[in-house]
Write a structure and sequence with these properties.
Largest sheet: 5 strands, antiparallel
Mean pLDDT: 87
Helix content: 25-40%
Low-confidence stretches: 4-22
Shape: globular
Strand content: 15-25%
Length: about 160
């Protein structure tokens, strides 16, 4: 009996222990996953370079379309939004809804994927949104189609 139990234990270890060392990541859950989880996932997939220094889209001019004639060159339209060399990642925290969540993200579906700030004073068109995240791309971002397909397939539960 002891030999059989020991054999089964060795067999289970041989089957399951190699799986523990695999570096295949689990997809990020787009509702419960954090911003940092998504960045790490995109780095692992090769969509974001590991040594990339992101640009804060909320405080840097040129990311929103200013519809006021120049008074809103940048806007706090998300809880976090950064440009990773052309991949623009945006996130809203639904667990503690902020002003950006309630006024900008809550109506993204109604606005065909466009984030609307202050009733349309500034806007940013996304390529896709999924859960609490949205993405967009700078002109010429080489992996846009691949990233978009992967992003849209991420789980929401």
């Amino acid at each position: 009996m002891k030999k059989t139990a020991l054999f089964l234990l060795v067999l289970l270890a041989a089957v399951y222990l190699p799986a523990c060392g695999n570096s295949v990541s689990q997809p990020v859950n787009t509702i419960y996953g954090t911003y940092d989880d998504m960045v790490a996932y995109f780095v692992e997939k090769g969509y974001i370079a590991a040594d990339c220094s992101p640009v804060d889209m909320l405080t840097t001019e040129g990311y929103v379309t200013d519809n006021t004639g120049g008074s809103i060159p940048c806007a706090p339209f998300a809880d976090r939004a950064e440009d990773y060399d052309g991949l623009w990642l945006m996130w809203w925290d639904s667990s503690t809804p902020s002003e950006a969540y309630e006024s900008c993200f809550a109506n993204i579906a109604m606005n065909d994927g466009t984030v609307v700030y202050q009733g349309g004073a500034a806007t940013i068109k996304t390529a896709a949104y999924n859960g609490n995240f949205a993405i967009a791309f700078a002109d010429g971002y080489a992996q846009a189609d691949t990233v978009l397909e992967n992003f849209q397939s991420l789980p929401r539960e």
